[in-house]
Batch of 2 targets.
Target 1
Amino acid sequence: DSGVTQTPKHLITATGQRVTLRCSPRSGDLSVYWYQQSLDQGLQFLIHYYNGEERAKGNILERFSAQQFPDLHSELNLSSLELGDSALYFCASSPPGQLNTEAFFGQGTRLTVV
Amino acid sequence: AQKVTQAQTEISVVEKEDVTLDCVYETRDTTYYLFWYKQPPSGELVFLIRRNSFDEQNEISGRYSWNFQKSTSSFNFTITASQVVDSAVYFCALSDPFYGQNFVFGPGTRLSVLP
């Protein structure tokens, strides 16, 4: 168990809908990262938050947004969903003040858009 | 731009065979970090090793060993005496030295260890 909690584990929704994925980082970790794993794109970095502030953006679509709350949990919002958004979404966290240590990944949320 | 290549899409071996997973990376940074992660059938990503660009010593951890060669931009992973439980997808990743764990992952190598 990595200590990173993601909910829900599975989500099935229709095209055009909006969903929210939730992530609780390990206790004490200030950074939260979101990744998308799909068959065609592989594992891609989406966005990084540190202590409530956005630090870096990767290949995140404009239809997607994220935030990190004062209690450090994070939410990834996906809107106007398309079939191609079906993927496994991972959240990861890392300790404060330590760049380039390993990131600890949650179990992922499997999103299926039908 | 950073890039990680894992040329082997799938490998099958019989239990107790040794197997090497290849990883080749591209970066213009002089300081960088390389990682290997394992994704078993259950789906989670499990950290295996981290190596920085200044440390070219090979590392051994039990049945696992890693060979980092800066001259060829490679960071290969060998499993000795493979076991069925080693069956998983293995990812090599490169991190940005300034943005921490914003990993660039390779496409992964699916390893099947047959009994």
Target 2
Amino acid sequence: KAGVTQTPRYLIKTRGQQVTLSCSPISGHRSVSWYQQTPGQGLQFLFEYFSETQRNKGNFPGRFSGRQFSNSRSEMNVSTLELGDSALYLCASSLETGKLPEGANVLTFGAGSRLTVL
Amino acid sequence: DAKTTQPPSMDCAEGRAANLPCNHSTISGNEYVYWYRQIHSQGPQYIIHGLKNNETNEMASLIITEDRKSSTLILPHATLRDTAVYYCIVRHPRAGGTSYGKLTFGQGTILTVHP
């Protein structure tokens, strides 16, 4: 089956612009999480969505936002871009029905969207 | 979630077993140990997880000490394609409504497999 699909894979923006990244989870997966990866900070959790509701949020400024649609697809938006927002943005999905054993709730990551802010 | 400590880097010869240690001395009784790896420029990939028993799957084996304060990921016959950053993560189980999507990644271990 198809994996987690993220678009676009690469993009270049300038400071002050805004960007929207898209994530299509594995079919049937209802939980979508977003991560930012930078050389200095490593992999950091941004937020998680389940059934169109944000369930958890990492320690990022309000410029970072997201949403989830009824088909579980998710988008994240970064407004007023800063140079430090240059990073690999990763999306992950998981099945999570509440009735599965722990092992069924592993995260499957997409290949990421690499954002460069100039 | 409990913190983990891993060596920053390790080397392994191709065809030999790669043993990657992880310390999680503050782990609580219901926290699971997960291993993910990230090959350059790709998203992290799930490898294996366990609670207290040793686990094996087609990718690797996970050995958890009896006191659960440390674990070892074993790649039995490392290949060049196993060169990656390996992350050991401890997290709460599903029960209680804990968010599953939030994983706390450390710096991981850079495993380099040499020909």
